[in-house]
Write a structure and sequence with these properties.
It is built from six helices and eight strands, in the order H-H-H-E-H-E-E-E-H-E-E-E-E-H. It is α+β, with helices and mostly antiparallel strands. Strands 1-2-3-4-8-7-6-5 form an eight-stranded antiparallel sheet, sandwiched between helices. Strand 5 and strand 6 form a beta hairpin. Helix 4 crosses helix 6. The radius of gyration is 21 Å and the shape is elongated. The N and C termini lie far apart (about 55 Å). About 5% of the residues have low confidence.
């Protein structure tokens, strides 16, 4: 979890636990069980690559982050590198999404979930740069789906090229004028990385393959279908 104010979050812990217990204390009906499918194991989508493969953006490291990292792994990088959180957005977890899908389709999926996972975060690197992280929600939690970096000014195009080629290998496309414009895009399933940088700053980002978010959404629909199938009443003849 990436709290904006660790002290405030800790102070609210006992209050949150009491609020979470209130439905049972008041005799509210028990939540129906919703099916939870397994999260597919996909490097660069639901798990990070162990090492960088030249030209394969889904394996790239940017500021210590890799696509597919879990929320806990993101937190480890944040603490190890001393990044400061400036903004955090949390979103409904997978179970809550399934319950909402069931209710929207006319079923009885229960009350909206109180669970949340990391949706997006902005981090300061301490030297004038900003990282923005975005995730996709899977059954086992949120996994990092895009990493962008806005660096401070002061680095030449030549130095940027040395740094990036040294980290990621030669780009598939490259043009250098007032800025270095480079793209690493190999197999469609490996995502892509783009850099538009120069002495005035710029941006560097890595994205998951197109359609990744819809793959997670399809699992929500599948879980909702399973809920209806398991609760369907069969006729008595």
């Amino acid at each position: 979890m990436l709290p904006l104010d660790v002290g405030a979050a800790a102070a609210q812990g006992p209050i949150r636990k009491l609020i979470d217990k209130m439905p049972s204390l008041l005799g509210a009906p028990k939540q129906p069980v919703v099916p939870m499918p397994s999260t597919p194991i996909i490097t660069g989508l639901t798990q990070p690559a162990a090492t960088t493969v030249a030209g394969e953006a889904s394996t790239f490291d940017l500021g210590g982050f890799r696509l597919g990292m879990s929320e806990a792994q993101i937190q480890q990088v944040l603490q190890a590198r001393g990044y400061r959180t400036s903004r955090v957005m949390r979103v409904v977890d997978f179970e809550g999404q399934v319950r909402t899908a069931v209710n929207t389709r006319g079923g009885h999926g229960g009350l909206p979930s109180r669970g949340s996972v990391l949706g997006e975060a902005s981090l300061k690197d301490g030297v004038g740069g900003t990282y923005t992280l975005k995730t996709i929600v899977w059954p086992d939690g949120a996994h990092l789906s895009s990493i962008s970096y806005l660096p401070p000014p002061g680095t030449s195009i030549e130095e940027w090229r040395r740094i990036l080629v040294g980290k990621w290998g030669n780009p598939s496309k490259e043009e250098a004028r007032d800025t270095l414009n480079a793209e690493w895009a190999g197999r469609p399933s490996a995502g892509r990385a783009v850099a538009q940088v120069g002495p005035s700053g710029g941006s560097v980002y890595i994205d998951s393959p197109e359609g990744s978010r819809s793959r997670a959404g399809a699992l929500v629909d599948t879980a909702a279908d399973s809920f209806f199938a398991s609760s369907a009443r069969k006729p008595s003849l």
